[in-house]
Amino acid sequence: MDRFVFLTFDGLSKGAVLAAFALALVLIWRAARIVNFAQGAMAVAAAYAGYSVTTATGSYWLGFAAALLGGLLIGVVVERAVMRFVDHASPLSEVIVALGLVLVLQAVLGMVYGNEFLPAGTPFSRTALSVGDVPLLSRYDLFVFGAVLLVLVGLALLFTRTSVGLRMRASAFAPEVSRLLGVNVGGMLTLGWALASAVGALAALLVIPTELGLHPHAMDLVFVSAFTAAVVGGLDSPPGAVVGGLTVGLILSYVSGYLGSDVTPMAVLVLLLAVLLVRPGGLFSSTVARQA
Amino acid sequence: MSEQTVTPAAPATAPAPRRALALPGFLSRSTLLRHLLLTVLAGVVLYLLTQQLDPFRNFQLATVAAYLCATAGLTLLVGMNGQLSLGHGALMAVGAYTVALTQNALADRGITGNQVLPLSLALGVLVTMAAGAVIGLAAARLRGPYLAGVTLAVAIAVPAATVTFDEVFNSEQGLSVAVEPPPLSLGRYFPNERWQAWVALCGALLTMLLLANLVRSRVGRNLRAVRDDEVAARLSGIHVARTQVLAFVVSAASAGLGGGLMALLAQSVSPGAFSLTLSLFLLMAVVIGGLGSLSGAVWGAILLVALPDLTHDSTLLVSLSPAAAQRLEGNLPLAVFGLTLIVVMIAAPGGVQGLLRRIGARARRRVPAR
């Protein structure tokens, strides 16, 4: 029973990170109708930037800020320099270009930092605090929950309560009309990418210390899990991404706890296939016309 | 093999007269005969080539041939049928592990000799086809990014499976493959690499022949019809899902053969050789080679072998510290591949083959028709 409780809380903590990462995917999907397959590599690049600052200054929080800022910048650069020029006629082009970006980013990171695992520090202790005799949550888990919650609330406020958020939603929903009404649609698209990339960077910062460490490929499996989470929730729905993230986090935690961690990739595959075959639009999808 | 589909980026000019070479009547009428003749010609040229090359180049040629099986299959799937697969590296792994296990099992029972090679390769193809059918059944219901996501999960899950079932697959270390030396009838000092090149080239030529015929047949037209417009294809009486599963199975079979040949060439299999990076490499090779035609797959396969070699040579030109050189060596090809992929996608979606065809078309227009 203790083990079950521990795995549940561990899964929720993992799930919170997956939720943040899935949210980043959903943000770009809603803004540009692109599943950003380069999200993982972009997030790792930002995390490396944070690592450099942390090792140079000795302060975790400066590195944290640098990584978030780096995430924003990477999002802007990727959108302005690459994605803007991709032909949107075929859905394959965007995926293929994003994969090219993955290769470039991972190769450059490997050249600069080497292909070894670098240790990533945490600002808080990762030893679990016990309630009674049952170890529940570490301070770091609480920090993860807090950070993800802050991002969720911040994004919700941004999209529903501010003029920028309204403009972003408008330009995603009806680009032509928005342009006629004086909305800078291109700018909003860039902003969407920047925000998503920063949220992805945050997720990478939160998850990497709990795994093996910093590595150019550190986010590969996380990306697939987060993609699964986004699909579980329906790619269109931010609340869906959060619920999907927590669900996938819990399932993966149980699988790796009871069956061994090397089964996790297969569990992700099975879960993804199951969701896509049973309910392709995700659990939170509204009914849409069938496409072909 | 030159007469293929119109690539997405094909110039929107009037269709140029296709009969550039005056073929004898029976050749232009029979696709099979034409392709057979081309295959035999290619076989003769390659046979002469293997006699001239040194062992290292022969081994590279064999590797190109093994990659060609996989890239040709992927071209069929992505270019002709419009289904994206990021999991072909994993399918190659299925073929490779099947061949490795079969070869070792036969060797354990004392059945050795080169005549079992076709058997184990065929078994590798069959098992990979079964795996392809399973993925294809799911893939037929999925579109665009969803399909990409599932096949990405496949690419990550299959190498991990070798760790989970480590008593069969021996986890990260992988298996060594029992391979016989070249038959004694070829002479005692016959170079092993030349023999490997022959085996791999036979597989590649067979794959290209079969795929080229398939592409030019009714099935091939169905594949392209489904790619261009699913609704229109369905209206014309094409079973869309069945066509897509078929494309996946055929493509998987080629990848399985490629993987099996890889296992024979390397004489070992390990999950590290079939990582996600390999899947991305294959996709990138077919995109850069040109998605529109099988000839693009040839360019792609050559590129996969040549580019790491070229970047290796170019890093030798600059003097670097050993540590920096080591970092560069593994990663520079990746960076070059990735950059080329992005540039090709944005600037020349037809790839190398599309570029060649455009140059050819322009040259033909310059020369006034007599």
UniProtKB/TrEMBL annotation, chain A:
Annotated Gene Ontology cellular component terms: plasma membrane
Bilayer disposition of the protein: Multi-pass membrane protein
Keywords carried by this UniProt record: Amino-acid transport, Cell membrane, Membrane, Transmembrane, Transmembrane helix, Transport
Residue ranges crossing the lipid bilayer per the database entry: 61-83, 95-114, 142-160, 181-208, 214-235, 242-260, 266-289
Primary location recorded for the protein, binned into one broad class: membrane
Subcellular location: Cell membrane
Gene Ontology biological-process annotations: amino acid transport
A Gene Ontology molecular function term of the record: transmembrane transporter activity
Record-linked PANTHER family: ABC TRANSPORTER PERMEASE PROTEIN, BRANCHED-CHAIN AMINO ACID TRANSPORT SYSTEM PERMEASE PROTEIN LIVH
Similarity comment text for this entry: Belongs to the binding-protein-dependent transport system permease family. LivHM subfamily.
Protein known as: Branched-chain amino acid ABC transporter permease
Organism: Catellatospora coxensis
From TrEMBL, chain B:
Protein source organism: Catellatospora coxensis
Membrane-crossing segments per the record: 32-49, 61-80, 86-107, 119-140, 146-165, 195-215, 245-266, 278-307, 334-356
This protein's UniProt keywords: Cell membrane, Membrane, Transmembrane, Transmembrane helix
Record's subcellular location: Cell membrane
Protein name in the entry: Branched-chain amino acid ABC transporter permease
Origin: domain of life: Bacteria
Record membrane topology: Multi-pass membrane protein
Broad class of the protein's primary localization: membrane
Organism placement in taxonomy: Bacteria, Bacillati, Actinomycetota, Actinomycetes, Micromonosporales
Keyword Mitochondrion found: no
CC per GO annotation: plasma membrane
A Pfam family: BPD_transp_2
Gene Ontology MF, one: branched-chain amino acid transmembrane transporter activity
